[in-house]
Amino acid sequence: MNPIRDIENLTVPLLLRNVVKNIHQPDRTFLKRKVKDEWEEISFRTTLDNADKVSSYFLDNGITKGDRIGFLLENSPEYVFFDQGAQQIGAVNTSVYPTLSETEIEYILKDSGIKMLLVGSPFLLKKVIKIANNCANLIRIVVTFEDYGKITENTSLNAGILSLNSLLDKGSQQLTKYQKQIEIQRNDVMPSDLSALIYTSGTTGTPKGAMLTHYNFVENVRECLNQIPVIVPEDVFLSFLPLSHVFERTATYHVCCAMGCQIAFAQSLELLAKNMEEVKPMVISCVPRLLEKIHDKAIKSGTSAGGTKAKIFLWALDIGQKYREVNEAGKTPGIKLSLQYAIAKKLVFSKIIEKTGGRLKFMISGGAALPRNVGEFFGNLGIKILEGFGLTETSPVMSVTEYNRQVYGTVGRIIPGIEVGIQDVETKEFITIQTYRSFNPDFTSEEGEICVRGHCVMKGYWNKPEETALVIDAEGWFHTGDVGRFFRGNLQITDRIKNMLVNAYGKNIYPTPVENTYLKSQKIESVFLIGDKKEYVSAIITPSRETLQETFNLPNAFFDESDEVFIEDTEIRKWIEEDLKKYAQELAKFERIKTFKLKRNPFSMEEGEITPTLKPKRKVIEKKYHDIIEELYSEDTEQ
């Protein structure tokens, strides 16, 4: 079912209106959040009423079409009220990652010219207060909590400040005056109008605001629903990835606005497992690292006791793999295998599935490459993981796994309505150009830069025409900077061009596939590969804290020694080396890690080492740890 398949000229604010007109009664639950020990339910009617109150307040305070409205908060119903209120009068959602520094927040507020800013916590308000007076366009700060007086006393803010509840009251008082104008402006919003500015997370250089239109978002949702037809209006989504990122915005929020699905907001990443059991979701958008952690925990739990329990667990996984492979080959499992699978499901798989709530149709993984073995592991359990690919600049989805056609290690079939080309990195000639209609399950291409043209491509970068021209060429092709190919008709990602290492002998090494090979180890949390213009590959490796702690009986204080960034313990190094040697056999000799440093704790956003989407900032890390990296090449260390 796709309720927007044939509706033309749709915009983001019209999606919810279509739901209450054609799919659900207005009093049906749309949003849920945990308040103390209970899940609070918020209807479509309440959501739309609050959106109108927000719009009324905006209009009464001079907000007009095209003005930028800022969002600095975690996922919540308040985010939805504010967004819907902004979108329906043509204002532009400019979301800011809550994890950004004050300097980065200030840059985005000033660059975009945000006029009103929604702030979600006292901690975030303290950040804003420090930089608000530097942002000339900011006229109002709105907070989602009431007790902000203690934070703002003894401060002099140029922008006014009030709570969201006060804003809703004021908007309600003026609603009769502005109701007709809200309706007129909602209908005047065009698909070509700007819906959002989403700032790139900036692994290099200054963040840039990608200009995404209503057309970008709505067409992306429309075609994703065509590609994944199992989503229905009765589904429940559990949302935990930040709505400030384009992936969650489209794959959860906009999809649910289009379908009428329910959104339950997780309390936190730490409480996600508990929330899954409570909410019993059908769909979750996630990132590979979460799936890797679930995989590692399940393997550890199933095998750590040893003996009969471990044998049954490993037997069940083997049966699950055989059952999956038969199904994926388009064949029907035999009686014996089907019986074995039923036993494996009852003894092992059902216990893991119960922890997801027991109703999961699929999880969709995006934001980075999912290691093939992790996808296959979930497939063996009977939990479907769909992979998608795209960037902020592509709204974001360019490709997504078809529900009934899984090719592990790929990011799925090109969505309808766009072209994806593979361009030779050296000659700039297109190796192939593929579309949804040209799909051939037997087609495999050579590798090159991935380029895209069509409805998903952004309007450009905000106030940056020169940077826009560097990535969108005269023929309308957006150059992603990612390297990949088509494999069995599906898109397969290798790495970012800028991440490519060229060793001293001219061999090209893409870090991500190599790092993912080593990440199969239960002992390793992260791998940062080094080797550009060097004779061999080295790495900064972070061990899995939990596994390391249990293996060597280490106290928590071991990880709090901030003055000792790296671990020098010989036994721990040997313990890691065991798995480095094991997994090195899967790699070419020039890709293998020869020497390494063990980092006590993972790279962090607070230190500016990774982006909000958890991608390492290569230049920042290489500069910060320059002396350590040089040590790795000061001696020809044998591994």
Automatic annotation (TrEMBL):
<dbReference type="Pfam" id="PF00501">
    <property type="entry name" value="AMP-binding"/>
</dbReference>
<dbReference type="InterPro" id="IPR042099">
    <property type="entry name" value="ANL_N_sf"/>
</dbReference>
<keyword id="KW-0547">Nucleotide-binding</keyword>
<protein>
    <submittedName>
        <fullName>AMP-dependent synthetase/ligase</fullName>
    </submittedName>
</protein>
<dbReference type="InterPro" id="IPR000873">
    <property type="entry name" value="AMP-dep_synth/lig_dom"/>
</dbReference>
<dbReference type="Pfam" id="PF23562">
    <property type="entry name" value="AMP-binding_C_3"/>
</dbReference>
<keyword id="KW-0067">ATP-binding</keyword>
<dbReference type="InterPro" id="IPR020845">
    <property type="entry name" value="AMP-binding_CS"/>
</dbReference>
<feature type="domain" description="AMP-dependent synthetase/ligase">
    <location>
        <begin position="25"/>
        <end position="462"/>
    </location>
</feature>
